[in-house]
């Protein structure tokens, strides 16, 4: 009995640790940095949007589109911190973690649409570039740049960039934004000094490409997760080899590894063991190895001896 309770306690510990590992580590610390960055990003987004309309600069409008992509990423990161605190219910046994993935997919698709609009508008402008109020435009872009640097600084100071995939992606977004603002400033300079009004649509297309790149990455990752793909950081072959290395294990089958949300992974498998092996001992070792080597705490492992028969499984 004592052995069984030990394995159970261990599993319980692993489970708590799992939630800590992904969203816990200073969840509210992360939330602080993210909220600050979101407030700055959203206000600059509005400034650049209306500034773009008033000055007639497409580069500013596209940079505000990029800001929107950021604001979206920040909102998702905050939602992840918030959903991590929502309890699971009998009808939603995983809680609301997946909502983050659905929201990310929506975010990715909307970015595609924005980038499309920008490219279409730029294409119209290449023919006859309109005059842009380049002075005001540079001022607004410069404010945008400062704000981005401030957000990046807030995330570095207040949040856990290395440990939390959400905060990290938000940070990369903010840095990408700063590039967009730099581009807008450069376009403003060219127009101000040389009256090269074509610089405006050129820069806006470059920013649109930045937006498309992040949109594509978001969509690719979310679809992989929604298709229950194996987490990118985990090599399934290695998992099989690790499990087969356990004493008494003959074969590993029906192995599935999937992500519930970014940073929270699950694994299930069947282990065929020798008839004289101690199933609980093998199970304990399997749980420990999977947690230590692959950082997966959500494991469901079915231990089978030769007399167990089950149907050939479809997947």
Descriptive tags:
315 residues, mainly alpha, three-stranded mixed beta sheet, elongated
Low-confidence stretches: 4-25
Return the structural class: mainly alpha
Please write the string of helix (H) and strand (E) elements: HHHHHHHHEEHE
Count of DSSP H/I helices: 9
Instruction: Determine Rg (CA atoms, Å).
Output: 25 Å
Overall mean pLDDT stands at 85
What is the distance, rounded to the nearest whole angstrom, between the alpha carbons of the first and last residues? 35 Å
What share of the residues lie within helices?
Answer: 55-70%
Let me know the number of strands.
Answer: 3
Note the beta-strand portion: 5-15%
What would your notes on this structure say?
It contains 9 helices and 3 strands, in the order H-H-H-H-H-H-H-H-E-E-H-E. The chain is mainly alpha-helical and 315 residues long. A 3-stranded mixed β-sheet has the order 1-2-3. Helix 9 links the parallel strand 2 and strand 3. It is 69% helix and 10% strand.
Question: How do the strands and helices of this protein lay out in sequence?
Answer:
Elements: H1 2-24, H2 27-55, H3 58-83, H4 97-127, H5 134-158, H6 165-194, H7 199-226, H8 236-244, E1 249-261, E2 264-273, H9 279-294, E3 298-304
Parallel strand pairs: 2-3
Antiparallel strand pairs: 1-2
């Amino acid at each position: 009995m004592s052995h069984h309770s030990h394995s159970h306690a261990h599993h319980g510990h692993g489970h708590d640790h799992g939630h800590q590992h992904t969203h816990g580590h200073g969840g509210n610390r992360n939330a602080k940095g993210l909220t600050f960055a979101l407030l700055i990003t959203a206000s600059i987004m509005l400034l650049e949007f209306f500034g773009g309309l008033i000055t007639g600069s497409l580069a500013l409008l596209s940079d505000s589109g990029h800001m929107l992509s950021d604001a979206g990423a920040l909102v998702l990161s905050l939602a992840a911190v918030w959903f991590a605190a929502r309890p699971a219910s009998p009808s939603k046994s995983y809680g609301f973690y997946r909502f983050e993935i659905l929201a990310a997919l929506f975010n990715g698709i909307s970015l595609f649409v924005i980038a499309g609009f920008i490219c279409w508008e730029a294409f119209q402008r290449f023919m006859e570039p309109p005059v842009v109020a380049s002075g005001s435009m540079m001022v607004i872009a410069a404010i945008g740049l400062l704000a981005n640097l401030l957000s990046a600084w807030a995330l570095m100071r207040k949040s856990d960039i290395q440990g939390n995939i959400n905060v990290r992606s938000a940070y990369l977004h903010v840095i990408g934004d700063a590039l967009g603002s730099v581009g807008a400033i450069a376009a403003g300079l060219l127009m101000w000094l040389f009256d090269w009004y074509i610089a405006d649509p050129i820069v806006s297309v470059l920013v649109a490409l930045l937006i498309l790149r992040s949109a594509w990455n978001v969509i690719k990752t979310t679809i992989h997760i929604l298709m229950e793909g194996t987490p990118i950081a985990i090599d399934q072959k290695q998992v099989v080899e690790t499990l087969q290395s356990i004493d008494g294990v003959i074969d590993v089958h029906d192995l599935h590894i999937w992500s519930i949300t970014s940073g929270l992974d699950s694994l299930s498998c069947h282990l065929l063991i020798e008839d004289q092996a101690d199933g609980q001992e093998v199970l304990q070792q399997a749980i420990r190895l999977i947690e230590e080597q692959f950082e997966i705490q959500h494991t469901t492992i079915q231990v089978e001896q030769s007399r167990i028969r089950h149907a050939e499984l479809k997947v």
